[in-house]
């Protein structure tokens, strides 16, 4: 696809000059070998396409669709340091490469998602205990061209992987040709995505933005089942949002387009041989977009090839002119691209950097000792008294991480420069060190305290004056209360454990990076030795001046025909590309139904509405019972439209366009006794002021979050200062509401989703220790999912008999007639039965 016949012809011309006779063949043997290898590279023309994006955006499903079958496991936690490459080949196999240089090849029935998951899933391979470096998968069913390699990098936005994310950018991105930035149509992390796109764009990489999971979009239904907004209109709005996102991220005013697809429909369409389903997926548009991108980057890659060949020809000419000139015994450094001194300095700088990183890591020991001393010497028993101590150690750990990243960044830039000078293909060099640090938190325990309240009245006043103040029978009411206090021993132990874990992790990263860097150093050393040997061999050979001068003359003539642009002249071809047929038109599909069918449709929607309103009322009453008082309701979200849908379902409240405009601008709206908090509003300062003024109130809270972006969600919720302050200032019972959950249902992993959310909920309750526990819910159109969830969470122990009774009761509902819905409900029940 990128085979440049002009450059290949040019290499042929160079080879013809160098092998004109036997003398030249012998003299230029190494040079001819170089041009032969370069022709082989051009003929192969490997294009590396990295798929990057938010965790659980459907990367594995998309790669499986490109592979033509389900080989990669979906809905997993990717192992942060393992790169997976996929390409086309005659053999269907996977090669697992290990750090010790060995490999394991999976073929036939052994090549399946379970066996790949053994190595690629963090759950099965925690902290990469199997020491896997890379997994290469090939199959003849690969949908893209022979010369395209898909590189599946670990999720760039998993919680607590900021360090790894930045290492990915510095180490992996320079080796990539095209970046597929994968998100979902419902993604609510636009600000985060813009920053990622800015960074990728700064590395001068071609970008294609893909919005996945269009199959999860449903028409917006209003009162009595009236369609307020159809699926096509909703997708158009999401597409517009993504276009604005790209414009912000790339800083260009070009009219960008966006690929919207369903990787799931594409995969199912291929596996079921369902052409209609496959066509609905839009995967062909994605494939065309990659081809379009390749065409766009072709001039840049061509220029790089021209510069590389030109540099090699100049190297030959310089060597020969030196040899036949007056100073043939001169310094070899004048001819070799990198002098011994420069290479020696490169190695010394790396060794110094390695030591500096080691010193930074050693600082953790001192931080640990200082923190333990502060905790030990503090007399406070209150939690708040230790928050600043713990926050300080977390801050210092982050500073250490930033210092390590800066050091790595500098050395990687130097390494890339040596690749260029030595005329080597840097794209072959990709390996990711993994780093995942852990934050500290204050450990607590409960102690029972006796609280004395003075009784009113003159007699009780006299009793208190006449008797011991600790005699409860004399003028006092006694209250026994469990109070949360600092657990010093547990906190100190936790500080020691986590700091030791972080130190060990950083040392592991240092070792991985060191190994990768030494590989590059050895490669450079080998190339330098080859160049020196080549020059020394020419010095030893018989010098036939006429032959050499003829070679120099012909090579110089060839150089004139090889146009080489200066770096400043290279045209920028960085853009966001989408391949769509400009002449294509969309015809609106209309389905004519009878009045009776329409009435039945309206009736079924009314039944759903009534059931949801009952659920909403039940949750509200449950919150009031937990809080022992009537409460208001607050809905906290980062994605406004799904939140509005959920409020409509559980509260029956409709919103005007003016309401929505106000929420988007100010972030807070009070309507019919419910609050809506939208954190991604335009005027965040107004939002923070409004929320800080809400104090000493009682709320039944719903936090709506994206289920398929659980890593990003954890950051939004757990590390959210404004949410923490709001929770501290008010009395709250919290319900966790999962939106965008279909990927897990489609992947048959609803149990894994619920486990992840339970962990998230427990972390939240631990951090916001005053908050009471409510329900885990799903923002689903079918209320039966939530009825099942509520029933299960209220069961103290879902034993087999209870499980059967509950299943029979739920399956009798007219709202649970479809097999798919029944299967989901049964998986919810099974999750809680297995868990108990």
Automatic annotation (TrEMBL):
Any one Gene Ontology cellular component term annotated for this protein: membrane
Residues of the Dynamin N-terminal domain? 49-205
Instruction: Name where it mostly resides.
Output: membrane
Origin superkingdom: Bacteria
Listed under GO biological process in this entry are: mitochondrial fusion
The residue stretches assigned to a coiled coil in this entry are 11-45, 518-572
Q: Which GO terms describe its molecular function?
A: GTP binding; GTPase activity
Q: Where in the cell is it found?
A: Membrane
Protein name (Swiss-Prot/TrEMBL): Dynamin family protein
Task: Tell me what organism the protein belongs to.
Answer: Clostridium manihotivorum
Taxonomy of origin reads: Bacteria, Bacillati, Bacillota, Clostridia, Eubacteriales
């Amino acid at each position: 696809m990128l085979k440049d016949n002009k450059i290949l012809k040019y290499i042929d011309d160079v080879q013809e000059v160098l092998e004109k006779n036997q003398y030249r063949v012998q003299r230029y043997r190494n040079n001819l070998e170089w041009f032969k290898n370069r022709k082989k590279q051009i003929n192969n023309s490997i294009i590396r396409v990295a798929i990057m994006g938010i965790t659980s955006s459907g990367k594995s499903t998309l790669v499986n669709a490109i592979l033509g079958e389900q080989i990669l496991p979906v809905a997993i936690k990717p192992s942060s340091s393992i790169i997976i490459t996929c390409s086309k080949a005659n053999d269907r196999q996977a090669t697992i490469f290990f750090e010790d240089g060995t490999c394991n090849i999976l073929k036939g029935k052994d090549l399946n998602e379970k066996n790949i998951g053994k190595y690629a899933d963090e759950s099965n391979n925690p902290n990469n205990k199997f020491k896997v470096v890379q997994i290469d998968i090939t199959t003849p069913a690969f949908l893209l061209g022979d010369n395209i390699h898909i590189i599946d990098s670990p999720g760039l936005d998993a919680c607590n992987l900021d360090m790894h994310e930045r290492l990915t950018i510095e180490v992996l991105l320079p080796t990539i040709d095209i970046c597929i930035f994968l998100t979902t149509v419902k993604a609510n992390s636009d600000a985060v995505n813009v920053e990622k796109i800015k960074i990728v764009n700064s590395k001068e990489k071609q970008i294609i933005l893909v919005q996945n999971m269009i199959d999860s979009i449903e028409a917006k239904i209003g009162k009595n089942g009236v369609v307020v907004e159809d699926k096509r209109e909703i997708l158009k709005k999401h597409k517009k949002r993504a276009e604005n996102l790209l414009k912000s991220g790339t800083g260009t005013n070009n009219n960008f387009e966006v690929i919207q697809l369903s990787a799931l429909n594409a995969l199912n369409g291929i596996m079921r041989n369902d052409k209609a389903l496959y066509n609905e997926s839009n995967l062909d548009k994605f494939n065309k977009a990659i081809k379009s991108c390749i065409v766009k980057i072709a001039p840049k890659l061509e220029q790089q090839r021209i510069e590389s060949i030109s540099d090699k020809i100049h190297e030959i000419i310089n060597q020969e002119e030196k040899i036949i000139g007056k100073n043939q015994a001169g310094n070899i450094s004048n001819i070799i691209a990198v002098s011994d001194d420069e290479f020696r300095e490169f190695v010394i700088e790396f060794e110094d950097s390695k030591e500096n990183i080691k010193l930074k890591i050693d600082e953790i020991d001192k931080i640990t000792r200082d923190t333990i001393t502060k905790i030990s010497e503090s007399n406070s028993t209150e939690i708040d008294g230790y928050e600043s101590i713990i926050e300080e150690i977390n801050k210092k750990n982050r500073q250490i991480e930033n210092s390590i990243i800066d050091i790595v960044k500098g050395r990687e830039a130097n390494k890339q420069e040596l690749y260029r000078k030595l005329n080597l293909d840097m794209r072959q060099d990709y390996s990711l060190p993994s780093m995942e640090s852990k934050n500290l938190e204050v450990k607590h325990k409960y102690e029972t305290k006796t609280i004395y309240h003075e009784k009113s009245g003159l007699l009780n006043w006299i009793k208190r004056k006449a008797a011991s103040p600790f005699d409860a029978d004399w003028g006092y009411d006694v209250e026994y209360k469990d109070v949360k206090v600092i657990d010093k021993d547990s906190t100190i132990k936790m500080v020691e454990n986590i700091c030791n874990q972080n130190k060990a992790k950083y040392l592991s990263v240092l070792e991985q990076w060191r190994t990768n860097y030494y590989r590059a150093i050895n490669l450079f050393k080998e190339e330098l030795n080859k160049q020196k040997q080549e020059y020394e061999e020419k010095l030893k050979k018989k010098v036939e001046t006429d032959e050499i001068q003829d070679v120099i003359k012909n090579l110089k003539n060839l150089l004139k025909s090889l146009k080489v642009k200066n770096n400043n002249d290279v045209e920028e071809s960085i853009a966001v590309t989408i391949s769509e047929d400009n002449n294509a038109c969309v015809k609106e599909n209309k389905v004519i139904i009878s009045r009776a069918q329409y009435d039945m449709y309206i009736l079924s929607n009314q039944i759903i509405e009534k059931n949801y309103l009952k659920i909403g009322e039940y949750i509200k009453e449950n919150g009031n019972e937990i809080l022992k008082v009537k409460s208001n309701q607050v809905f906290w979200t980062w994605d406004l439209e799904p939140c509005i849908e959920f409020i409509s379902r559980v509260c029956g409240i409709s919103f005007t366009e003016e309401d929505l405009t106000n929420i988007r601008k100010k972030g807070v709206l009070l309507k019919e006794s419910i609050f809506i908090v939208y954190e991604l509003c335009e005027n965040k300062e107004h939002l923070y002021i409004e929320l800080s003024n809400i104090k000493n109130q009682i709320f039944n809270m719903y936090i709506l979050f994206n289920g398929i972006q659980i890593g990003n969600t954890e950051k939004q919720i757990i590390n959210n200062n404004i949410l923490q302050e709001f929770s501290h200032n008010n009395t709250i019972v919290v319900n966790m509401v999962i939106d965008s959950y279909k990927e897990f249902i489609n992947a048959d992993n609803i149990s894994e989703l619920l486990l992840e959310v339970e962990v998230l909920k427990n972390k939240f309750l631990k951090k916001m220790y005053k908050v009471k526990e409510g329900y885990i819910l799903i923002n689903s159109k079918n209320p039966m999912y939530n009825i099942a969830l509520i029933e299960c969470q209220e069961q103290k122990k879902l034993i087999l008999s209870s499980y059967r009774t509950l299943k029979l009761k739920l399956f009798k509902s007219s709202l649970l007639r479809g097999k798919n819905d029944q299967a989901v409900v049964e998986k919810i029940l099974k999750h809680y039965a297995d868990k108990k």
